[in-house]
């Protein structure tokens, strides 16, 4: 199997504005963590944050599959 550079992926998910601070705290605490998926792949959480605008909150995070 060839050794290739793993691509980083970005995800956006809507969250309840009332939960934005708790979600932000959690995702920040998970940065750098590795998660073993059911497929056998490992996902590394690169970074994440919650952006708030116009009474809406969006979780944005980047991960890399290995």
From TrEMBL:
The organism's place on the tree of life at top rank: Bacteria
Protein name (Swiss-Prot/TrEMBL): Uncharacterized protein
Lineage of the organism: Bacteria, Bacillati, Bacillota, Clostridia, Peptostreptococcales
């Amino acid at each position: 199997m060839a050794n290739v550079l793993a691509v980083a992926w970005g995800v956006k998910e809507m969250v309840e504005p009332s939960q934005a601070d708790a979600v932000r705290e959690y995702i920040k605490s998970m940065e750098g963590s590795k998660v073993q998926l059911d497929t056998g792949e490992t996902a590394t959480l690169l970074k994440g944050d919650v952006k708030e605008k116009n009474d809406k909150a969006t979780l944005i995070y980047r991960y890399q599959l290995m």
